[in-house]
Amino acid sequence: MPDAPLQQPAAVVIDNLRFGYVPGEDVLLIPDLTIASGARVFLYGPSGCGKSTLLSMIGGVLVPAEGRVDVLGNDLASMKGSGRDRVRADHLGIIFQQFNLVPYLSVVDNVSLPCRYSQRRLQRARDDDGSVDAAAARLLSELGIDERLRARRSTDLSVGQQQRVAAARALIGRPELIIADEPTSSLDADRRRDFVSLLLSECEKANSTVVFVSHDQALADHFDNAIDLRTINRAERQSDAA
Amino acid sequence: MLHSLRNTFSLGFKSVWNRRGTAALTLASIAVSAALLSVVDRVRTDAQTSFANTISGTDLIIGARSGDLNMLLYSVFRIGNPTNNIAWDSFETIQARREVDWLIPMSLGDAHKGYRVLGTNLDYFEHYRYADGRNLAMSAGEVFSGALDAVIGAEVAEQLNYAVGQQIVISHGITATSFVTHDENPFTVVGILAPTGTPVDRTVHISLAGMDLIHAPPGGLELPPVVDDYEPEQITAVLVGLKSRIAVFSVQRFLNEYEREPLSAVIPGVALQQLWGLIGVAEYALLGVSAMVVLAGVLGLLATLLVSLNERRREMSVLRSVGARPGHVFSLLLSEAALLAFLGAVTGLLAVQLAVLLVRSWALSEFGIQLSLGLRVFDFAVLAGILFIAVLVSAIPAWRAYRLSLADGLTVKI
Predict the structure, then answer these.
(1) What ipTM was assigned to the predicted interfaces of this complex?
(2) Does A152 lie at the interface with B, CB-CB under 8 angstroms?
(3) Residue A39 half-sphere exposure, CB side, CA atoms within 13 Å?
(4) Residue B323 forms contact with A (CB below 8 Å)
(5) Which of B14, B324, B325 minimises the CB distance to A105?
(6) Is the pTM of this model over 0.80?
(7) Dihedral of alpha carbons B276, B279, B284, B287, sign
(8) Which of B4, B5, B213, B409 has the fewest CB atoms within 10 Å, i.e. is most exposed?
(9) Which of B336, B312, B11 minimizes the C-alpha distance to A116?
(10) How does strand A177-181 pair with strand A92-95?
(11) The pLDDT of residue A2
């Protein structure tokens, strides 16, 4: 649990969360977790401690057996699947460990993908940059992707470039919350630091809250708060699947 | 809504393009099935129309006793052979009946380079009607007046590159190659008929006198001053026009009970119906087989989508993570199937148009079938049907993708 005083409205509030993939075997048991709006939180812990499961809760993909997961004022646990999908589309940007770019789309198409499913992010991109393509181009440029690469298929890029494209995709339309699930595990140490700095800089510009998951504690000094999930998760059994 | 639909189809198109190798095979199988269905129906309806247009205004066809169909085929469509001849006396007897308006005598059995030769008189050019009652018309020259004059059909002229004044030799028998030719009595083309789209176009017309002349020993036939007045001993068939159609059945009964020789009188429309009845079973069997091919094509599409589904789980979860709802995933799969089915069916239907364009003159000359160009209602029904079935069966992989996208969430590990 972060000790830093929270001055702004919370981006994520977790209250008495209980979840297990198998009934009776809890993976997550978190009494209380609040992530302030605009905060940059580093979440770490060993494999199987429930990091990805917690992100899936915040992303609205999994729902708790008990308790409340409140994201930007939306009580996900009490919402229907379509409502959670809407919250995810409009307010969340997600970066994966394996980048997960759509192989048949160009770099620009991959970045603008969220705007296909969210009118809110589409409108923001247009308001900020005039068009979705312009917003994608700006983000790619800021993240160091050469203009000549924008029309290429994402699979033609290097690992580092793909990761920055994935970051641009998460950031387009300025979502309020960015979730990054071990996005640096494929990068070498220097590139990890560069990537994290770049990501946080972009998140700051977009005024987005960041929840960054990694088992590499060396990255923690980039963030406002570092949370060891084991200290807030009271579940006795922590699944490998998590 | 429109934005969402456009998004889905745009993504679907890009996804299909990404798998264009397998997609092309699926598309080809659907194209073949659509083409097959369209071709079978086109040939079926065009053949019916072509056959129905061949003869018009003729109330009865008379020939030696045989089946209705056989008589219709050899006398009107120049297919097959007559069983026997009928005596000219019988022709005169029929002509004398008060119900009869006109008669066209027909003498068959010879050919010129594969085209049937018809011996007849000038009543043929006056009374023969085709399609919706149209008369025969000359495109060049005039009708025959001499015993060795010939009037050729439009296709004979075009295919053999004949013009008025051309000398032709008639062969014995009806095959394209004959060992017996009547080259001692060459005919001169004096007229060319305008195209009719019927077997008339593929016929060489000569006088009854000319027909007997080439079969008689040298100097063994005496001709009247006016060749058209010549009366042969036998002819093959007679087309009959009655003053009133009410008399058809009484004249038919008279002829079927004719005592001096065994005759058959056939009503062309009834014989055509028999023909449709006979080939209808085969037509529907062909349509059934074609429908099965369509089903096979669509099942191929289903198999392709199902097989690709597992390798696309990550793609689905990525789409979910960027905001796609399960409905989007479902509709993406449907849109891909619809796109492949639509493009496949359209390709097949256009291929049929191209094929018709290429083979229509051959089909006309070889089978007498005037294949029509242009899309028809049936083609649009084929397109809609294939699209409907494809979307229907693709609901299976779409539903599976929907379920997987829910189960996999955002962190598919494959």
Answers:
(1) 0.80
(2) no
(3) 26
(4) yes
(5) B14
(6) no
(7) negative
(8) B5
(9) B11
(10) parallel
(11) 45
